[in-house]
Structure formats: C-alpha cells, structure tokens
Amino acid sequence: MIKMERINKIYRPQSNPVHALQEVSLHIEGGDFVAVMGPSGSGKSTLMNVLGCLDTPSSGTYWLGGIEVSSMNSDQLASIRNRKIGFVFQNYNLLPRMTALRNVELPMLYAGVENKKRQARALDCIEQVGMLDRIHHRPAELSGGQCQRIAIARALVNSPDIILADEPTGNLDSASSLEIMHIFQSLHRNNTTIILVTHEAEIAAFARRVLHFRDGRLTADEILSPQHLKKTPLPKGGEDI
Amino acid sequence: MSLSESIRVALDSIRANLLRSILTTLGIMIGITAVIAVVAVGQGGQQSIMKEMEKFGSNLFQIRLDWRRDELPSGTEFTMQDIEIIKANVPELEYLLPCADTYSQVKAGNKAKSAQISGTEAGYACLHPLEISTGRFFSDSDCQSGRRVAVIDEELARELFPRSSALGKKILVGNQALLVCGLFKAESSPFAMGIKFVYIPTRVWLDIYPDGGISYIEGGTRNPAEVKTAMQSSIKILERRHRSENLYQGVDMEQQIQAVNKVTGVMTLVIGIIAGFSLLVGGIGVMNIMLVSVTERTREIGLRMALGARRRDILLQFLIEAIVLCLLGGITGMALGVGGAFLISALAQWPPLVSWATVLLAFAFSAAIGIIFGLLPANQAANLDPIEALRRD
Ligand SMILES: Nc1ncnc2c1ncn2[C@@H]1O[C@H](COP(=O)(O)OP(=O)(O)OP(=O)(O)O)[C@@H](O)[C@H]1O
Ligand SMILES: [Mg+2]
C-alpha cells in the first residue's frame, strides 16, 4: 500500500536548513494499523503531510497503492488526496457554518458525486461513527468527541485507501479518546489502513505496529503482539460501534 | 465542485457576513442605479424627440438663412418670386411653402392671448400631421386671393371663445380681423410647452407684418429619396438669384436626427465615464472585502485543499463569490434604477425607456466587475499552501 524510499524533507534549505525527515524508508501493508510516536519536533507531522500528499519530499520516492506520487503536480495530488486519503485532524477542522451532514459531504463535492448518492453515502458514514442523531447540528453545537466523530465520518466518505490521523485525541479527555480509538479499531477490523500520530502510549497500544521517530529519523519499528492487543480494555457496547 | 454548489457556498458566506456584504455592494448598487436611471430617462427623452421629428416627415426639408450671421447682406431675403421660380425649375418638388413666424397677441372680444402666428400655405396641412377637428385648413385659392382666414388650435379657441364654437368667429391679429375657418387638435408633446398656434396664409401674414419677411422655405417631395437633390437644386437657384454663397442652409430629417444623436452620444459618453468611476470604486470595495474574506477563511481554504479541492476549484469558489456579490449589488441597483427612472420621468413628463440592452449591459457589467476585482483575491486564495493554511488560526 505505502512504500517510502530514502525520503528527506528539508525546510528552508537556503538559510538555516531544518531536516524534518532524514532518509526515511518504510513499508506499510494495506489494512495495517500504525501508530507514529516521537518527541515534539521529531518530524511526525511532516511525515503525515508527505504521506497525505499535502507536501512533497525534498528527495526520495513515495509510492501510494503502486503509484509514484513524489513527482506529481498539485492537481494530481489534490485528486489523490480526494480519493485515496482521509484526514483526521487534532482540531477537527469542521467548517463552522455547515451542518454535520454538509461537512461530511464536503469531500464528495470535489469528487463530483451526485446529490442523492452523496447524502446517502454521508449518512452511511455518519452511522458508522454513531452520530445519526446529530446530522443537522453545527460544529459549535457538538462536543469535541462528537466533532471528531463527524470528522472521521468525513474522512471515510470517499472510501480512501488510508486514514491519516495526526493526534486525533490530542484535544479530547480520556473517555472521548477511548471512544474515538474504538471507532478506529472497528475501522481497522473492516480492513481500513490507518496511520495515527500520538504522544500517548495508551493510544498507541490500539495499533498493531508502532513507528518511533527522533530528529527526523525512523529509530524503531515495533510490532505489538496480538496478546497486547487483546489486553486493551473494551468498554461495554464498544463492539457494536 | 459544481456551479450550483459553488453558488450555494458563495451565498452561505455572504449570508454569514450580511451587513458587511451589503455595505460592500453599495458602491456597485449606486453605480448601476445611476446608470440605469440616467440611461432610461435619456433614451426616453431621445425617443420622444425622435417621435417629434418623425412628424416632420422624411420627405421634408427646410431652407433658412444662415442664423449665425449677425448681418445679412441686403437683397438676400426670400421673396414670393423665389418660390415661383424654384417650383417651376425643380420637378421633384410636390410642395414649396414660404413660411413666416412670429409670436404675438391674438384678440377676440375683450380677451387676449399670446400665440405663435405662422404664415404658411395650403400644402402645410399635407406635410404635417395636423389633425383638423372642425372646419378645414385654408385652401390654395384662399392663399392666392389672400383671404383673411386663420386655423387655430382648439385650446386657444376655448380660451378665446369659452361659451361657443370659435368656427366662423372673428379674431384680431395685429390690426387685421381674421375669420376662423378651422380648428385643430393641440399637440400634447412635452416639447410644445403650452404654446398656442395660429396658422394664416403667408400673404396675409406679410400684410399684417410688413416689416417681417419670409423666414424660411419648407419643401416636400413626392419621394423621400429625392429630398436631398430637391433641396440642393432649390438652394442653387436661390444662390444664383441672390448672387450669394453659403448663405442658404438646408436641413432635412436625416441631418436633424444626426444632430440629436450627436447630443445623446456626448451625453452617453459623459454618463459612461461617471458610471465607470463609480463602478471602479465599487469594484475596489469588493476586492478589498474579498481579500479580507480570503484571510479570514485561510483555514477553510487549507481544509478544502486537503479534502481534494484543486487550485482552480478554490479560484472558482472565490471568483463566484465576488461575482455573486457584484450581481446582488447590480440587480438591486437595476431595480432601484428602473424605479428612479419612472420617478424622474413622471416629473419630466416623458416615458422612460428601459431597454433589454441596458438591463443586460448592467448585468454583464456587474458580473465583469466581479470577475476583474475578484481575480486577485481568488488567485491569492488558490495559491495558498495547504499546510500553511491549515496551520493558520
Ligand atoms: N514550514 C516549516 N518551516 C520550517 N521548519 C518547519 C516547518 N514545519 C516544520 N518545521 C520543523 O520541522 C521539524 C519537524 O516538525 P513537525 O511538525 O513534523 O514535528 P512533530 O513531530 O509533528 O512535532 P509535534 O509533536 O510537536 O507536533 C521541527 O523542527 C519544525 O520546527
Ligand atoms: Mg505534529
């Protein structure tokens, strides 16, 4: 699904260069659930931006689903982002003037999905995150956890190859964080590829694989044992999300 | 993103900042209002003038002495003999009328009114759309024999003879008593300005005003195509007979229309320049507010890009927002302009003319302003870097 070879990202190469990513090579299979960890400034967000085709690497090659995207132009990248990638942000990034439903429909507008299908699909995804009773609410009328669920529904609507979540629980209390992680877990069970940045070990514990970054370098690549996975506590009713 | 979606987004964002949007479009609105109102009134006026002139007839011409000369050489005035000779030598002519005008008192009993006293001949009734309501216009034989007859307008008749019909009554013009042989319907054009008219045979006019002379000659041809040649031949004859050049000036319908068009052309240009400036100022206002909008919505732009909006989608979104903003101003301005035109025309007493061309032009113009002044902000939005934009708060 994802293959990176010797990716470098250098900010401000002229004045005082910042090596945000250095010689990063990695391989992620479809359907995997990967957590990215590391101290602040270690290049996690930069990696996510490159993975999400929001940014192009300074050097190296990046294949997404067998296509080399490191040399694409901005329109092609927009199309990849639209169809292959679902973003979940720390601050949700919902448009405040739109209802939850309209927010979820947004990626489909740029995919040219027709009106009727759009709404049906949006409702489908909202159902997956358990927010059907809030579709006509605006973000200001939702709690942080609810906003993040809507944001996940939005990430799902175009059936992307991968979900990229940069500290999705960073603004949430531990109860809401757990709810969100259970949603990710159920998506993982349905074979969605998920890559998630986090500072917290409890959150990373939901993943199958953890990548550790330091100073822009991939320093450790850890596969969590299935036993470890089973040990994670599931709240009651968590199964049917 | 589809056009209807883009328009929906544009309307959403305009509604979200309603007061600001209204204030922004004010400049455009006022500009369009002014243009529509002035053009409608102007075109209405022009049409009224044209209608007036059409009555003059396309087979008509007039020859006058150059009015710009302070002093005319003696022996150049029109004479009755000129008329006879021209008539005999210009076969295209159907009518040739010696005419004379003056403004003077008309009396009947103890009443006195001012009116324009025009000396002319029988053919006048054929060349002009004079609607005789009672009696008749004077005939050729009346003119030749110099009968003291007059044709007056109904309104004057009513004022002079409030109790009975004026037909067959005597009126006094100068020192001469004249028999009213016909009444005609007074014109109701805004340019008549309440002037009353009395037509009498030219011979009689010359008797009453022995110091005056024939002030102009009016000619009519059978075929409108022959007006120019008939007019020029007549002028040649006059020049030869009076041994003078460039003194007799002919005017026909075409020249008059050209003159009016020249005036309205200048007027349109002046209005156009004023409107252009007001719309320019309005457009800069729109550009300013769109730049503010782009800055405020940087995060939204970043998000849309992350979700798959291409640069041109963003460009189009903001361009459409600018166009919608301008069109809102333009359409309101159009409504106000048409209303204003009817108001002004009600006061000026001629119908306004709101042509489709004007409305379409105003519409196209507002849209064009939206495009021109929306381009810079929209381009700025489209060239944002998605990561930078997403990080902005
Ligand atoms: N636009 C930029 N210009 C210059 N330097 C940048 C830019 N973006 C990031 N950096 C630098 O690149 C390095 C990696 O940043 P990045 O945002 O990827 O870190 P991070 O691991 O996500 O940190 P955090 O956990 O705090 O979010 C940092 O040193 C940062 O200062
Ligand atoms: Mg980060």
From TrEMBL, chain A:
Signal peptide residue numbers: none
Residue span(s) of domain ABC transporter: 2-240
InterPro entries: AAA+_ATPase, ABC_transporter-like_ATP-bd, ABC_transporter-like_CS, ABC_transpr_LolD-like, MacB-like_ATP-bd, P-loop_NTPase
Annotated coiled-coil segments of the chain: none
CDD domains: ABC_MJ0796_LolCDE_FtsE
Keyword flag ATP-binding: yes
Pfam family, one: ABC_tran
Gene Ontology MF: a single term: transmembrane transporter activity
GO cellular component annotations of the record: membrane protein complex; plasma membrane
Keywords: ATP-binding, Nucleotide-binding, Transport
Domain of life of the native organism: Bacteria
PANTHER family for this protein: ABC TRANSPORTER ABCH.1 (PTHR24220:SF86), IMPORT ATP-BINDING PROTEIN (PTHR24220)
Full protein name: ABC transporter ATP-binding protein
Organism field: Syntrophomonas wolfei
